[in-house]
Design goal:
Elements lengths: L1 E2 L2 E2 L5 E3 L8 H9 L5 E7 H5 L3 H5 L10 E6 L3 H12 L5 E6 L4 H4 L11 H14 L4 E6 L9 H10 L4 E5 L13 H8 L8 E4 L5 H9 L5 E4 L9 H11 L8 H19 L1 H15 L7 H7 L5 H15 L17
Helix pairs in contact: 1-11, 4-6, 9-10, 11-12, 11-14
Length: about 350
């Protein structure tokens, strides 16, 4: 699959942009496990053009995570155009427009999936952004606002006409939020329309290697984007890639391996954001790494309340000792079988 001149290879796997999740350290982990492309968290156009520190910090990209996309959202054309110009200074491989976020505080202002209620504005905004930057512009959106108006087919054609380089479709309407099952049938129809010349990337409910394979084989999409299934499971990219190549299901990482991965993630988070912020922002990930462990409540509480790195590392070692065995002398985890 190619996005403009960016070659992502055959059947690429992409990490979905997710607020409070896809920060630099998590993107790093997913890239290490085989994600072919990653995206930043959502970035507010208003925040960028007002030099808001939180928004500007999200432009922090490293060469090791490339190819990487910056995703922008907003409801007004001029701020979005200016934000795209600012984002381009960070040298992303693509600039992605968020027309898909269903969260009320974004959609009800007309941004994210709220833009699907004003298709002419969506198209004009996209046209202006494409003209304003030299970086390839892509779009991520949904099937429509509600069940009665799934207008994604018309939107896809119109966005293609104004010059986007690829389209990612989440197989739900805004009204569905994240409930019910994603509808891949309509995604497949759009991909297989001869009038569609740009890559179509499918998103929604990709939580196993088998579902990823079905997305490629049954619906014919050019790429698959993985979102919520990566929570506490960055190795899902390795699982999917192995299955697509061999047809074999890899075993889930042992508790010891998960401890090693969590340590590596923690140290990367601290490296990127400093000890205080790095530790705080790891809390959302720690619980996910060890879901399903029995009698884990007290230990989970420690993971999400401790502030000192040595204490956290000691707690992680305790998890390995109690639930799976681990070399407690290793501060930095030993390599996994794939070299990570």
């Amino acid at each position: 699959m190619k996005i403009a001149g960016l070659d992502l290879g055959e059947k690429p796997l992409l990490l979905a942009p997710m607020e409070d999740v896809t920060d630099p350290s998590f993107r790093y982990m997913c890239k290490e496990f085989g994600a072919d492309m990653v995206y930043t968290e959502f970035i507010s156009s208003d925040g960028l053009i007002r030099d808001a520190a939180k928004s500007l910090a999200k432009l922090n990209l490293s060469d090791s995570e490339r190819p990487v996309g910056i995703q922008l959202y907003g409801h007004l054309i001029e701020p979005m155009v200016e934000a795209a110009r600012v984002a381009e200074t960070a040298r992303p491989d693509v600039i992605d427009i968020n027309f898909g976020c269903p969260v009320k505080k974004i959609a009800n202002r007309g941004a994210g999936s709220g833009m699907m209620r004003d298709v002419p504005l969506m198209v004009e905004m996209t046209r202006r952004i494409v003209r304003a930057v030299s970086t390839p512009v892509t779009v991520k959106t949904r099937l429509g606002w509600g069940e009665e108006n799934k207008n994604i087919h018309d939107i896809a054609l119109r966005l293609q006409d104004v010059g986007i380089a690829a389209l990612t479709i989440h197989g739900r309407t805004r009204a569905q939020m994240y409930k019910g099952e994603a509808d891949w049938t309509l995604i497949g129809e759009i991909k297989n329309d001869p009038a569609i010349r740009i890559p179509v990337i499918g998103n929604g409910d990709i939580d196993s290697p088998q579902r990823a394979a079905e997305a490629f084989d049954k619906y014919g999409v050019d790429g698959v984007m993985v979102g919520r299934a990566t929570y506490g499971r960055p190795w899902i990219f390795r699982e999917i890639s192995h299955y697509l190549t061999t047809g074999e299901i890899l075993p889930q990482p042992s508790v010891a391996e998960r401890v090693g991965i969590a340590k590596r993630h923690l140290l990367k988070s601290v490296e990127v954001k400093g000890e205080k912020v790095g530790v705080l922002e790891m809390r959302r990930h720690f619980s996910n790494y060890f879901k399903g462990l029995t009698n884990f409540k007290e230990t989970r509480y420690k993971l999400v309340t401790l502030n000192d790195i040595p204490d956290l590392l000691s707690t992680l070692d305790y998890i390995a000792e109690q639930w799976g065995g681990y070399d407690t002398g290793a501060i930095v985890p030993p390599p996994l079988s794939n070299g990570i």
